Amino acid sequence: xxxxxxxxxxxxxxxxxxxxxxxxxxxxxxxxxxxxxxxxxxxxxxxxxxxxxxxxxxxxxxxxxxxxxxxxxxxxxxxxxxxxxxxxxxxxxxxxxxxxxxxxxxxxxxxxxxxxxxxxxxx
Length: 123
Description:
Blueprint: E1 3-7, H1 11-23, E2 27-31, H2 34-44, E3 48-52, H3 62-70, E4 75-80, H4 85-94, E5 98-101, H5 106-117
Parallel strand pairs: 1-2, 1-3, 3-4, 4-5
């Protein structure tokens, strides 16, 4: 069971992703803004973060860099549309470990979590 933070300004996307993650036995936390994301991140020390690449209240890469400065071991997955390939590449360079393209398939989410965390889940 991993602690997973979902950062997205779309409540619908957070619900859809949470559904997949909870079904697979993970504990999820949600944030709709950068401020909320930082508060939750510091409070729960997640194993994995799913971060919407484009959010209205921040630079696309700033939160990735901030998360990695707070916890260099955290795994970050950026979520974006296929049209933002250049930004996805920049996010990987900034510290993200993987990406998902919206709309995602549930199997893609499960495979991504398993690949990134394997047995490396904090208690």
